[in-house]
Model the fold of this input.
Amino acid sequence: MREYAIGTDQDLSSTLTAENMRKLTERGVEKKFERGGCLFHQGDGGANVFLLLEGRVKVCLIGSSGQKTILRIHLPGSLMGLTALAAPPMRDATATALETVTVVELTRSEMQAILLEDSALSLRVMRMLLDRLSDLHSRLADLQAASVDQRLARVLLALGQHDPITEATPSISLTHEDLSNMVGARRPTVTSALNRFLQDGLIEKCGRSIMVKDTGRLARLLVV
Done:
């Protein structure tokens, strides 16, 4: 129950407890989206909040020129579409399923009612939002000061971090295009950096996936 934290060293572990998830699941409607399915579009009015139960969802910001920036990759236990609680509700990004996903969809009014009923859950959601904001601030600072290799190293370290839930180090199953959208660089530039990391033994390929092989050396790239 966590998210991929890209810009910070902190763990963006989901603050939702099993009881929180049970309550949300009971009050919402379960839905499935196939790979490539869109949960919501940037610019649309937002009427619903989503709790991710299974699969991964990427959330992208699309600039005026069409350039995509991946803001976050959500894993099970994460809440998505919280801008539905804003006034007026408006989607500030686009959410797309990276694989078949299962979500619980809650209406704006139902989510507001739950938060009013449960002050502890409200505080957990507030913490989640503050952690995400901190992550975005760190990424903006990286875009100004860090090289592509440093930004890519940070992304790979975040994506490949040990999962305390499954007690495993996950493989990174993302396209070079997705990685470039997370790093904030052109795809050929990111591909070249990945090839250097591969030759230097920092990562290894497992089919179409990437495994972080040497976290220590990757982390040292971040030291300026």
